[in-house]
Structures are given as structure tokens and as C-alpha cells.
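Recap from last week: sequence in, structure out.
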Amino acid sequence: MKVRDLQHEVLPQATPEELSRQRAVVSLRKLLNARVRSGNVARYDSEGAPAFTARQGRQPQSPEEIRAALFESQRYRMWSAANRSAQEMLWVSVGEPVYRDLDRMSAAARALIDAPERKGSLTLDPDYDPSPEVADIDIHLQPGGYGLDRGPDDVVAGALYETGGNVFSFGQGAGRSDSKTGVAVRLLGEHFPGFTPQRILDLGCSAGAASAAYAATYPDADVHAVDIGAGMLRYAHARAESLGVAVNFHQMDASALSFADDSFDLVVSHNLLHEIGAEKRGGMIREAARVVRPGGIVIHQDVSIRFEPTIVHQVERDWDTHFNNERHWQTYASADLIADMQAAGFDPDSIVEHNLPAVQGAIRWYAITARKQG
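Predicted C-alpha cells:
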């Protein structure tokens, strides 16, 4: 299943020069991640910790001291500066085609959203004030953040998210057939054989790639998706319509859903756990448990930083908290998600954590699953 670089009417049409700049960023990020970052813990052992010990007369102990020791290494400081610059270059490389092609994209989105033969729907709430802990932060340094909304036809947030996400993921080592949906569908087949959802809810859907993929994978299912940003949702809806799949998008907070109890067979979230704080995460998990029907399944999937083997590895991976506007990165990494799921009412015997390989490529994923009793 090819899920990246899918062609659709609201995708920015980059020029050859713009594509060349994006490929250059991908190559730089691959170099920084595969060949440089992979040595950061070794640099801590050989350079950072000895330098810290020489200064302080003792080994680093707390996460803050380990972070300080990492920055005692000149090679780590060089990687950190280069990695931040590469992330900034990413947004320049995708922002150019987005803003140059914006008039065409906006018109295409409006035509798709208003088309009488549209398959899905878009429900925006003009009174909704997006959650500031997400909307007020340029997560991943994405300009304007996830809640960016510049007017009634605006689709910039979604366009930046999809194109930037592709460049980011390829630079991390993701394959063109890799997808979070593909990982979740494979997990369902392996751990819940025979389960075929008829009503699906995607929490924190962003630009709608996973939502559309669920609609394509389960064409008879009634697929719904929620996110906080109107600009993100307009893009997601137009994207799904252009791809010919039916998804119903709603502007809604995942921790305060308006759906009825026991109304979905499958509730999923992808990479949402690390974007929200502990209080909102608990609310989101409780809401997922509330709206899934007895016998239904909940999957919360995210990045695999929870499986780092040592505290040094954990601190090294926490770079994104401090330099990539991932404010809740470490909060997610250290959370007791099994306890969160139990507090939401799931039977402890039904809760399972998974360390999952990618569909294609080098990335690994985390997921926690549960089946509602009754």
C-alpha cells in the first residue's frame, strides 16, 4: 500500500527546483539520523561524561546533568545545531511550494468540499477555541502550528503537515509504503483475527492520511475523524474527497467528544499521545473507552521512545522537547499508560503494549491496545 506522495488535487505542486531542495533536506536528515545521531550515546561515554566528571568531580546523575554532559561533547553540539537547522530547512523547502500554489489549492479544496457528490463530510465549530497546549505551539517547528486557520478557505496547516511530514519521515528512514495505519491494520490482523470494524474513529487526525487509509482499507466502514484545527480539517476533507474515500471530519477535542457512548467498533489515535499533556491524555483515553462499543478495540499508537534501554538513551531522545517544540515528549515517554487505560475502565487482562516494526523502513512504533468487555 503506497501511502506517501499520493497524488491528489490539494497536494502542493512543487517545481523541479523545489523538489530538489526537499530531496536535499531528506538526504541531510538521513545523514544526521543514521550516521551521526546513532553515535550520540557513544559520544556521551567517550567525551561528555568524562568532561562533566572532570568539571564536577563526580559522574552525572540526574537527567538534567546527563543532558549537560551530552553538551560537553563538541561533536554532539555540532549534531544538535545541524539537526535544528535541518528541521528549519525542512519547513522552508515545503513552505515555498505551499504558498506559491496556495490559490490553486484553496480553490480545489473549496470545490471538493462543496461538491454535491461528495462522499464524506466536514463539520466545523465556529465557537470552538482550539486547545492552547497544542494550538499555541509550533510543534515540530511547523509554522503556525496545527491550529493555524487564516480564513474560511484556508488549508495551509494541512498542506504543511502532509508535505513536511513526508520530508521528515523519509529523512528518518521511513519507506514509501510505510504508514501508521498499515502498522495498526497489521496489528489488528495478528492480535484480533477476524475483527472487521464497521464504524471507526480516528482521534487527532491532522491532515487525514490515516483516516483516508482506514476508509480505503475498510470501504464498508463508517469512518469519522476529529482534530482541533479548521485549516487542518479542511485540507483533510478535501484530500479524502480527491482520493475518492468517505471520511466524516469533525472539529473537536479528543478529550471532550460529543459522540454517544458505545458508538464505534474501533477507536484509534496515531502520534497523539506525545502531543498532549498528562491531563488531556487521560481525558482522551477515557473518552476513547467511553465511545468504543463492548467488544470493540482501542489502539493508541505512537513513536517507540518508550523502549529506550538506558537513561542516557532516554535523555538523548528528549532532544525534541528542547529544540523541536515537542513539549510533552518526555511526559509521554515516562507515562504509565497501562494505568491510564485501567483508570479508563479497561480490564487489565485486555491491555497489551506492543513494540512494532514499520511496514517498510527503519522506524519502529509503540502501541497500546485494549478490547472493551461486555
